[in-house]
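Lab notes, practical 5.
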Amino acid sequence: MIDLSPLKSSLKGKPLAVLGLGRSGLSVFDACKNAGIDCVLWDDGEDMRKAAKDKGATIEDFTGGDFTRFAALCLAPGIPLTHPAPHPAVIAAKKDGLEVIGDMELFHRAKPEAKTIAITGTNGKSTTTALIGHILQHAGVECAVGGNIGEAVLGLSDLSASGIYVLELSSYQLDLMASFSPDISVLINISPDHLDRHGGMEGYIAAKERIFRGKGIGIIGVDDDGSAAIFARQRKEGTRRMTPVSCLRPMTQGVFVSAEGELFDGPHGVVDLNTCPALRGRHNWQNAALAYTACRAAGVDTRAIAKGLQNFPGLEHRQKIVTSLHGVTYVNDSKATNDDAAAMALSTYRPIYWIAGGKDKGGGYDKCSKYLSHVRHAFLIGAAEDVLAAWLDKYKKPYTRCGTLEKAVEAAHALAQKEALDHATVLLSPACSSFDQFKSFEQRGDVFCEAVRRVTAATKASPKKGGKA
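Output from the prediction step:
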């Protein structure tokens, strides 16, 4: 756990107000309690309040009261700061002159000298973050990985002065960072996402660009227009030492991946990414190139990085192979909650028995349409069934309305095994959020994996009729 005791004097005896009691909010309470810092907690959800009260927290609805008695308002990332409208507590706190910050800012203020690598982007954040942590650990570098992935930042271990914190940052978390300036900042890519929370694309891009505030090293994937524009601005500004990364074109200065999958650092070949089984597809080549660049900036030897890329086991719920049966591979890509992420998976496999759907995000499926030729049949689930069906009708792509994920797995499995096509993949890559039927994409992925194990076990237990033996 991060030691917050260095903050006590700056709080001047006033408690923190903590709003939102999910993973990050509870970690703020735990760290404050451990440091002897008073805090008052609130969440609109009764179950969340009860869980915090059971841990000994002071629970009080302070959202409409006097904020001058508090040192600051610590906001959970999921609570609106500015759009579509600020939470009433945010308005009240600012009116009373309080800072509104998040757990990342508390971490920075308690450990201003901590070495940090921070990663953001619309897609690939978790894979790139986990990959950097994996490489550092296998190179013998003391590190801790968390933030928007895994453990909340204040729940991470207190590292020594030489240790490195590898932190995934969402756009929501970046909005709540008043002064935190990572040593090495990585932007993977930018495409429309969470626009309602940032007032449009301009606000979303501005939130992502906050990761480059202050001095240090900046690393940007420059294959999309938004990221390329940020790179140009940051290089012109000159505050950070910037390195561009591309998977679409060679670069004399920077890091790139060739069309054949060879990773280059300028003119020097580093590793053939085709030898990295958990990093299939051009989107994963981008993740690998950015992870390589960040680890080199952190001082890791090129050969150690190459070895780490090759033995990376992959990330749960991100194109993770569950099993294979009679030539059909079953892949869990539940983390693909938008058009861009699902399109990356669709580009990687063919033929695909595609399970898609959930809560529609309203951004359309234009990126996925480019790879519908890879899809043999779609199996639709959740609240987005009607939207996806109408979209697939435009392309005359066959689909089955399944309603639930379990029924979709059964139907996709049956058709894939019956048709027995070479290199076939049953792919869960929903292109939608999970919140219509599941509490998280992780739960959705777990349900998929369990359903796959059940149907494949049943098939193994009975003779296979037709197709391949």
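Observations recorded by the TA: The chain has a mean pLDDT of 94. The longest strand covers residues 240-246.
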